[in-house]
Fold these 2 entries.
Entry 1:
Amino acid sequence: MPDFKTLLENGFPGVIDGWVDAIADALEDDDNAGPAFDPFGHKLVRRTMAEYLERIAAARAEIARFKGEKAAFEADNAPDDLEEDELANWNQARELDRQARELRAEHKAALTELKKLEAAAKKPPAAAGRASAATQARLEKARAALAPVLGRLAAIAEALEPYEETKADLTEARNSYRTLLNDFLAELKTTCDTMGEDEKRHLVLELMALDVRAGMDAAMLDRRMAAAEFVEVVWDKYRVTFRTLLGIKANIEARLTNALKGIGYA
């Protein structure tokens, strides 16, 4: 076992330091392709940081929930006439965003002019002077002309609003989770650093003993399963006695002889 080698080379504190380093590395890998092992299932964590595990599980469940809501929105309202590969790549949020961008690009000049008129209309009457009435009239005319476009953009924004809220919630949940992991790791390091030599030795021996016991239990279970499988094979092979087999053989021979006599071969 690697822990025994570490113990021989670095002593009991070195074993604990190695465990903490492995847990820290796994927590970093969790942000990328996924950890090589579950750091929250490590024996040191289960023994010393049990109070954090429930909070971490709740935070991960919240992230999973927001991910599910985001994915559900993206997959919703797919057109019925999509091919299989198109359906696999369908994203409602991306499609709505594309429609909004195309609308803005198509009516870019008119929308720019509308913004200028709205800015001019907001000026105080003293600054706008006699042109205020004319500006207001042009503004109302521009709004009327762009009413279908503005209505469609508003509808798209309204449709995307829950999606944007979910994205914001997901970002906040991820940030909170990362903060929780940093606190968890700092607390783990502090807990281990404040242990005395005897406490570290007792903890390492206790956790190693649990590993040995688990390994022995697993080996015993494998042996029991192998023994049960062997018994089943032997039972399937010998459950019919030799005397019964002889009786079956005699019965078949008698039936065969009668059949041959019936067709004139015997």
Entry 2:
Amino acid sequence: MHDFSMPARHLLGSRARMASTLYRSAALAVAMALGGCAIGETLGGANPDDGSLADRARRDAVTVDGLDDAPVDDLGDAPDDDAAELDADDAPGLDAVAPDDARCTGECVPGFVQSCGRCGVQRCLDDCRWGTCASEGECMAAATRTCNGCGTQTCSDTCAWGACSATGGVCTPGATRACGNCGTQTCTAGCAWGACTGQGPCAQGATQQGACDACSQQVCGSNCQWGGCALRAGNGCEYRAGRNSRACSACRCGLQWCLPSCQWSTACTSCCSTCGGCL
């Protein structure tokens, strides 16, 4: 803040001396005009109390002249002539420049900063208006949103999304998984598993008698479909109601029959004594 006290005293002192000079000159001029004297002539009258107008004017002029060295009100002694001269460059006028913040009539004071948006920073520009919001985060603090379908995310104090809390369901909508006999299950919009669709008639590796011989069975394949009849584990043959046989002996004219135990008979029966006599 400027200190205007000393320049003001200089200015008032100078103005007082100027007024004194003008008043003294005017008084002398009146005295000479009224007394009828010529320029350079000395006014007469030895009595200082002489009531003539000319003498009074001269005394008034002398009295006014005494103002040169008189103090100016309570501003202190007037400085000497050289120091009393007011330098125009040093004297602030009525329109002296105020600090920057006093000049602003806009939104803010230049250089000031404030928080904005999603944990961002905004700076006041030289034209007293806020600049753009910079360095913002992902979200507004404490905001929430859904995630993974039915989960919830909360924005942290640093404007970043937190972990997904999947408390709203058991799956993500649209996700699939295997189910049942080669079927497929799809997660619904409500984050719950839907019905199992596209299943086969059997589970992989399952067995059944079906239309097979007593010694055989059907096995469900990897595509959850029943395969053909196949011997049960440990069986050597299909019984086929005692009609299942196979050739035996060196000349292959003998026969072995499948027994009810699902095993081939050990005896090789034949209707001929030699291989050449087989019917």
